[in-house]
Design a protein that fits this description.
255 residues, mainly alpha, globular
């Protein structure tokens, strides 16, 4: 229990404090707030921004676009994994598309999408484009890891397809789906913010980051960047809790 506490809470907290201390010492040595403000100045700026309505409007707008893209990617990637695993022709048909999405630079995709979709829609679709191959690949790997002997045994004992899906396939898929969620959320959130910085949709965090950089408002730039990091970490944490709660409910239900 004590080891679990240190691994889960104490060591991560001390690690964060260490790097904040490194940042603080570097800012004091450099002594140029325009280039590297101290953590305290950034925190004060963040608190002042949190008190404004424009800050929450930008956070809500960006979060809605990016979270919507991630949810759509989870659904689309799972459906593609099921389709390409079940039908070999579809696997050969869509595999080049998966490789293309993985190898194409995100910036190039952003500019291409701008030509067809307009600035406001690019963050959603770039999030979808980045996250879908990750979900697709992980879920397909999970489907490939399903023990066919268990499925055959289920058929021998007359189990229905829905029963085998719930009690055989899903437990084996769970670690792969969890890994897909965590990887997709982190990369998709960064790609979505990058798309906002390049496309400059009105009322978005990316737009505010670009303006802070343009006018050399370094404290605001760090504050908005810190906001993005905190939101991304919070989404990952909430996703883990939801997945864990769903697993616990399932175990209680079948106990």
């Amino acid at each position: 229990m004590k080891k679990q506490f240190f691994d889960k809470w104490a060591f991560p907290f001390l690690s964060v404090c260490f790097w904040i201390g490194v940042w603080w010492v570097a800012a004091l040595i450099l002594n140029k707030p325009l280039l590297l403000p101290t953590p305290w100045r950034v925190l004060c700026k963040l608190f002042s921004l949190v008190a404004t309505a424009s800050f929450w409007q930008a956070v809500g707008t960006s979060l809605l676009r990016i979270a919507g893209g991630i949810l759509a990617a989870l659904l689309l990637g799972t459906l593609l994994a099921l389709a390409t695993t079940g039908v070999r022709l579809l696997h050969h048909l869509f595999s080049p598309l998966l490789s293309l999405c993985k190898s194409t630079p995100v910036a190039a995709v952003i500019f291409l999408l701008m030509l067809f979709l307009g600035r406001q829609n690019v963050p959603f679709f770039i999030t979808l484009t980045v996250a879908t191959p990750i979900v697709w690949g992980n879920v397909r790997a999970g489907l490939g890891a399903v023990d066919l002997r268990l499925l055959e045994m289920g058929r021998v004992f007359g189990l229905s397809r829905s029963h085998m899906l719930l009690h055989v396939c899903l437990p084996m898929l769970r670690p792969y789906f969890r890994a897909a969620c965590l990887s997709a959320i982190g990369l998709a959130f960064k790609a979505g913010i990058a798309a906002e910085i390049l496309c400059l949709p009105a009322g978005s965090i990316g737009n505010l980051i670009y303006e802070s950089k343009l006018y050399l408002h370094t404290e605001e730039l760090f504050a908005y960047t810190l906001t993005v990091i905190l939101i991304s970490a919070a989404i990952e944490r909430i996703t883990l809790l939801l997945l864990k709660r769903a697993e616990q409910k399932r175990e209680v239900y079948h106990a």
